[in-house]
Amino acid sequence: MSPADCAVVVLISGHGSNLQALIDAATPPVRIAAVIANRAEAYGLERARQAGIATQVIDHREHADRESFDAALAAAIDAQGADLVVLAGFMRILTPTFVRRYQGRLLNIHPSLLPLYKGLHTHQRALDAGDAWHGCSVHFVTEELDGGPVVLQSRVPVQAEDTAESLATRVHAAEHLLYPVAVRLFAEGRLRLGTLGAELDGEALPPTGATLPSLTAAASLS
Ligand code: GRF
């Protein structure tokens, strides 16, 4: 990674609305070098093509096990000279070997205020718990699923009439604001994974990462 250029490879499985947000926000030093999907029908591939970004499909069903799929994925990522690997709705569990290879340059976005609600169905779980706030988190990926150090969070108020769908829509809007900020901070060399956790501008971040009040306000309006 040079100060002027950070090659980002985005991994997707589906709709790719976070990918679109990253594409729309990608100005130097952020450069989206390629988008890789594990499903040929992932709509995000079309978004990448429309933006003139290289695409590749690596279908997990054509690999005998996770190790061989992840090895093919790593080869494709490395062929792009990736400085940063961004998971954007990538619905495969990655092997420890893969995660270790990209340690400190592998980010994920998760639709909850981590450490709450790792895994699936986060919006319904927040509603069932009667939470006043829900949201999304960007974190460095480690071997623990959705358990790596949090970088940034955006909080979204839960409204009395919310369903899982309405809440998901507002959290998604917050994700689209949050993820490009995290990618830019990394590309600018301001965000890194230190020995004790995520660091921003050389300072350790708290366990719930940094929150961006302006993002919270914008998300709650949508
Ligand atoms: C997002 O909700 C993200 O938090 C989760 O997967 C979803 C991807 O949505 N990891 P999209 O494909 O970016 O629209």
Produce a short descriptive summary.
The chain is an alpha/beta fold.
SSE layout:
Elements: E1 6-12, H1 17-25, E2 30-37, H2 43-50, E3 54-57, H3 66-79, E4 84-87, H4 96-101, E5 106-110, H5 122-128, E6 133-140, E7 150-157, H6 164-187, E8 191-193, E9 198-200, E10 203-204, E11 210-211, H7 213-221
Parallel strand pairs: 1-2, 1-4, 2-3, 4-5, 7-11
Antiparallel strand pairs: 5-6, 6-7, 8-9, 9-10
Helix pairs in contact: 1-6, 6-7
Organism: Pseudomonas oryzihabitans
Pfam families: Formyl_trans_N
Keywords: Purine biosynthesis, Transferase
Quaternary status: single chain
The name of the CATH topology of the largest domain is Rossmann fold
* Radius of gyration (Å): 17 Å
CATH superfamily of the largest domain: Formyl transferase, N-terminal domain
β-strand amount: 15-25%
CATH architecture of the largest domain: 3-Layer(aba) Sandwich
Order of adjacent strands in the largest pleated sheet: 3-2-1-4-5-6-7-11
What shape does the CA trace take? globular
Count of separate DSSP helical elements: 7
Beta-strand segment tally: 11
Structural class: alpha/beta
Parts with pLDDT < 50 across at least 5 consecutive residues: 214-222
GO molecular function, one term: phosphoribosylglycinamide formyltransferase activity
Pfam families: Formyl_trans_N (PF00551)
Keywords: Purine biosynthesis, Transferase
Active site: 110 (proton donor)
